[in-house]
Amino acid sequence: MTGTAVGPTRIAGSEAAAPPRRRSALLLAVLVVLTAATLVLGYANKARCTGPEFDAQGRSAPDYENRKDRDVCYSDIQHLWLGRDINEHVFPYVDGGIDANGMLTGGTVEYPVLTGMIMWLAALGAHTDAGFLLASALIMAPFGLATGWLLGRLSRWRALLWALGPPLVLYAFHNWDLPVVACAVGAVWVVHGLRGSRSLVWRGNVAALLLGLGFALKLYPGAFVLPLALYVLTRGEDRVPGSRLDWWGAVRVAGTAVLTAVVVNLPFAIAGFPGWKASFTFQELRKVDFTTNSFWFWGFRPDSDPSNIGFQDLVSWLSPVLVLASFLVAAALGLWRMRRVGSYPWVAVSAAMLCGFLLLHKVHSPQYTLWLLPFFVLLRVPWGVVAGYLAADAVMGIGIFRWLYDVRAGANLEITQGLAAQAVAVGVWGRAALLVALFVLFLRVPPTFELRPEDREGPVPEGPPTVAAAPAA
């Protein structure tokens, strides 16, 4: 009798599970298709600056220097076709360096080594800046699609914010940021969305590996290793008040991230240490000026003029100190929050740390919004706050290029005057105020994904996160 009862039960269960699986597959397919469409728009937006003619070095003509800002189609990808020996297909870092004027030489680029490798690969078959932009877009587009898929697995329809968000049109191919965003989101998915019965330490180590690769792409995911290690240290969702801390697990997670970053960087450091080091030196020497889009420039006029060496030296050490202090504050607040929610909120702490960096770093490039956008999906930030931030970012991201055109064309004798300059100021200050608010808000709102990974076929429904009850001590 028992045997005859089991068969129908399994069939009924399979039939009941089939529709949710089909809905999940449909959801993910829609998200990927919409992300692809938005990426095409993002490429078309930047490709407006290419051609129709090209000079002997492959630079778009005519009048590239004016129209890149005037037509708001500038991208670092197209622009850096010249000036870093990319057009000469020179292998990066090995024979490079930095001169006394702070200019990079010999193929060194101002980005970590994995981004440098993407740039080199994209340039191999290119002979113009248009070809370089297209090849870079083709290499990076799969990372943007993967990010949309992973966010859909974690947070369902809220991932439409990534798939259809204005930042993807404005910045997807502004710089080489899609791979590093995919690494950061992938780390969250490994910890909280990976199916199966893998242990927390195993998942933490895989996530740490992804964060280490992210460090070798654009540095910032390396900061997330601290909250991830604290999550493992306090045993994540298995935490029981008064239980032992998993020191060995946390050390393994931190060690995996460090080892990954070292293994990736070491060959370049050995092959050409001056060129490898120059990529970091270039960022250290960069001054606060009208191209950095940060409150350091706008908030301290006229002292923030690049000719004021005292101010520039002050910001060079004060900015990183304040960034590190914000990291520690966010990590400490995460420990306080853990007492209320039951587990260490490492994703929320990572988001708050990123806010600290974006606010206090002396440079705020427009495409950094792509770094923050996934956290609007992963954490239940009110839609009004999200809309406000994206609006301020769009005002700044569009206004900055019209303003640069005015400044370089000599339209404004005082660079802080004019409609475009006011748009940039509104964007910079509006974004700065929202970053302060988000630093606090990220640590208070719940996640949009299930905290404990389960062996399931599709993404969980959007709703209040579920936390499994802790076992008895």
UniProtKB/TrEMBL annotation:
GO cellular component, one term: plasma membrane
Membrane topology reported for the UniProt record: Multi-pass membrane protein
Domain of life: Bacteria
UniProt GO molecular function: hexosyltransferase activity
Locations listed in the record: Cell membrane
Transmembrane stretches, start-end: 25-44, 132-151, 171-194, 206-233, 253-276, 314-336, 342-360, 372-401, 421-443
Region (Disordered): 454-473
Keywords (A to Z) from UniProt: Cell membrane, Membrane, Transferase, Transmembrane, Transmembrane helix
Primary site of residence: membrane
Family the UniProt entry places it in: Belongs to the glycosyltransferase 87 family.
Identification of the protein by name: Integral membrane protein
Source organism: Pseudonocardia dioxanivorans (strain ATCC 55486 / DSM 44775 / JCM 13855 / CB1190)
